[in-house]
Amino acid sequence: MPYNHKVSVAGLVTNDDSKILLVKSPWRGWEYPGGLIEPGETFQQALHREIREEAGVEVEITGFVGICKNMEKDIVNIDFTCRYVSGELTTSEESTEVIWATPEEAMEMITFPLTKKRLANMLSGRGEAALFCFRREPFEVVEDSLFPLGET
After folding, report:
1. In a domain, 1, yes or no
2. Cys-Cys link to 45, which of 6, 31, 41, 147 (CB 3.0-4.6 A)?
3. What is the domain extent for residue 32?
4. 117 found inside a domain
5. Is residue 120 part of a domain?
6. CB–CB of 31/39 below 8 Å?
C-alpha cells in the first residue's frame, strides 16, 4: 500500500505588543497562517513562505509546540511559534483580511474546532508539545498526548 501523507506547517506569530497574527481564509474563517509543504521545501522554508504569502510579513521561528494528524485525509500538521520581524500586513488570494489580535480575541474569533484546539495548544506556554490525532467531520479527537520538550 503506497503512503500518501501530506505535511503542513503553521505558525503562531506574535509581535512586540503580544498580539497574534490572524488571517481570514475565504474557506475556514479566521486562523493563524500556514499551509502544505511543497516538494523539496524544509519545514522552515515552508513556514516562512506561507506566512509571507498569506500575511506579507517576515518572522523568526522561535519554537515547536505540537503536531496533529487528520486521520481521514492523512495530513500531518506541525505547529510552531514565531516572532514578527518585519513587513506590512498584506492580504492575498488565501487571506481576505489580516490583523493583529489579543490571544483572547483570537480564541473568540476562531470558530473552526480543529483550528481552535491547535491555537489553545500554541497559547498554552506549558513547555510541552501536543500530539493528537483527529477526525474532522464531525470534529473528534481520537488520541491526545502531551510530551515534554527537550528531555531525553
Report:
1. no
2. 41
3. 6-144
4. yes
5. yes
6. no
pLDDT of residue 113: 92
Query: For the domain that residue 134 is a member of, what is the CATH number?
Result: 3.90.79.10
- Residue 150 located in a structural domain: no
Integer Cα distance of 122 and 94 in angstroms: 22
Can you give the pLDDT at residue 46? Answer: 97
| Cα gap 92→114, rounded to integer Å | 23
* Phi, psi torsion values for 54, nearest 5 degrees: -85, -25
Give the chain's domain count.
1
Nearest partner of 22 among 75, 94, 86, judged by Cα: 94
CA 133 vs CA 17, 77, 108: distances in Å: 33, 10, 23
Q: Rounded to an integer, what is the distance from CA 10 to the centroid of its chain?
A: 3
- Rounded CA-CA distance 103/101 in Å is 6
Burial zone of 32 (CB within 10 Å; 0-12 exposed, 13-18 middle, 19+ buried): buried
In this structure, what are the phi and psi dihedrals at residue 135, rounded to the nearest 5 degrees? -110, 145
The whole-model pTM stands at 0.90
Report the pLDDT averaged over residues 35-54. 96
β-pairing, 128-135 vs 140-148, is: antiparallel
Cβ 21 vs Cβ 32: under 8 Å: yes
